[in-house]
Each structure stands twice: as structure tokens, then as C-alpha cells.
Amino acid sequence: MKIHAYLMFDGQCEAAFNFYAECLGGTLEMMRYADSPEDMQVPAEFQQRIMHVCLTVGDQLLMASDTLPQSPYEGIKGCSISLQVDNVPEAERLYAALSAQGSVQMALQQTFWATRFAMLTDRFGVSWMINCAVDSQMG
């Protein structure tokens, strides 16, 4: 069994996942509602929204889609994407990138459980935790 996070956006899915691919690396596979082989009867203004996107980083997946008019959007709440990184420079790089134009709940810092830890919400409303338990660059 594998467990993967699936996020829902309200028209910002493509921009968010292009940003995440830039920050995290990996490859993107994206399908728009207009690309569906079935007639989904999606209003014209929703045709270019994302029906499904998958960011693959190694053997990890982060997936998402945009909502449709019949699904009221309530934002992303009640969960965080947790990144486990191997060294402080990578934690610092991710923190700087993901927190840009977002909000920080806990700045990147040393804690009793980690060399570096942070909590933030990115500019798309997604909550992230960055955890570097032990810096692999320390010898």
C-alpha cells in the first residue's frame, strides 16, 4: 500500500503544480477537463482547469485537481504536506521558495526533535512542514 496526498484547488492547480515542480523537482503529468475522452459537460470557462495532475519525485507522488462549479471550494485546510529533507541547505532552500508570498507559522529553526523544522502556508493556500531531523552534511 502507498498513501499519497491529493489536493483540490479553485483554478490555481496548474500554477501551483508548476511552482511545486520548480521547488521540488520531479516530473509533471497534467490533464485538463477539455482533454477528457468522455463528454463531461463541463462549462466552457472550466475546460482549461486541471482535471488531474501528478507530480512524481522519485517514488513519491503529489496529486491534485481543480474544482468544478457543482463542488463549492472551501480551501485547503486541516492538513499539511510534510517534507523530510536530509540537510540544512535543502531545508533552507525549500523554506525560502515555499514561504515566498505565503505566510509563516513557525520559522525554520532548530527544535528538540530536528536540526531544522518549519511550518508555513504557501501562496496557493497549501500548508507545508519542512523537517530536517539530522543534517547529513554534518560529519
From TrEMBL:
Pfam families assigned: Glyoxalase
Record-linked SUPFAM superfamilies: Glyoxalase/Bleomycin resistance protein/Dihydroxybiphenyl dioxygenase (SSF54593)
Cleaved signal peptide residues: none
Stored Gene3D superfamilies: 2,3-Dihydroxybiphenyl 1,2-Dioxygenase, domain 1
Record domain Glyoxalase/fosfomycin resistance/dioxygenase: where: 2-130
InterPro entries the UniProt entry points to: Glyas_Bleomycin-R_OHBP_Dase, Glyas_Fos-R_dOase_dom, PhnB-like
The protein's name: PhnB protein
Species the sequence originates in: Pseudomonas borbori
Classification of source organism: Bacteria, Pseudomonadati, Pseudomonadota, Gammaproteobacteria, Pseudomonadales
